[in-house]
Structures are given as C-alpha cells and as structure tokens.
Amino acid sequence: MPVETDELSLAVVMERKPLKSNWQPFQWLPAEVVLSPIPAGAPRCLRDDPSATLWLYPGLSTRLYSDEAEGYFLNLDSGAPCWFIMWRMEGELAVPQFVTLSYNEAARLMDGGEQVDTLPLPAPIMEKLGSFVVEYYRPEPKGKRRRPSFEGGAAVQQMAHDEGGRRHGR
C-alpha cells in the first residue's frame, strides 16, 4: 500500500514580464514557491507596474507518495532539483493549478499538453525529499538482455531461408 507524507502548504507567485516582441507582448512564469500556511483564498495582486506584474496564489499544497519515489529520485539526480508548477491561463491571468516534486508526474502532465515550469528547490525541501527517496525508492533490477533479432539466431536464419526460397521459386 502506498505511503504518503503530510501535506505541505504552499503559495505560488506568478510573474508577468513584458517582452520586446511584435507577436507576444508579455510572458507569464512562476516567480516563487512559498512555504506558506496562508489559507486558500482569492489570489492577490502584489505588484502591477510596467516592469512586472506579480500575483500570489495561496492555498496550494503537495505531498510525497511512495509510489512516486522514482520521480523524486530523478528530480534529485537531475543536478538541478526543482519544484514543478503546472499552470493554466484563465482569462488574462496565469493560474497555478498543481505543484509536484516528481519528475515523472511533471512529464505526464506535459505529455497531456499542460504548461509546466520549474523553480529551484530550497535546501530544506531537498533534504526532506532526499530522506524520502532513501526510504522508499528501490530501483528496478536490471533484467537479462535478450539478443535482438539483428544479431542473428535460429529464427533469423529460418526467415532468411524462407525468404530465399520464395525468390527462387521454391
């Protein structure tokens, strides 16, 4: 049975930066993940000026699940451990929907067409994630390698023999 950790309360700050482009006037990106006991509620505009717009989205959370341990391992092993923030445009605002620490979960979201961006993981969260991985991640044992058909074998020889017979009218 999978194990899960306590919920980690988060808020995400999204930033809109102007771009010097004829095709896209601005770009939205996550600016910060805040470890926060701020309860869920309406997003708050923290700053709105020509240089940048910042919105705080409280009430998000994440947990660690033992059946995602491989994804956490891959995140830590990447050389740049990070938060994965999935967000969607809602009208004129970029709204974070989901935060995970699993590389595999983020990949599944992107495969499904979702927008996922990253932010660096702070050291205390990296340590907790590392402890969880040590406790729950068990790499799959490597199986015996089967010889591919292009390396030969009886089936390939039989197929070549049969093919040769058809070409020569046998």
From TrEMBL:
Domain of life of the source = Bacteria
Native source organism of the sequence: Massilia eburnea
Give the classification, highest ranks.
Bacteria, Pseudomonadati, Pseudomonadota, Betaproteobacteria, Burkholderiales
Question: This protein is called what?
Answer: DUF3305 domain-containing protein
For the region Disordered, give the residue spans: 141-170
Record Pfam families: DUF3305
Where do Basic and acidic residues bias regions lie? Answer: 160-170
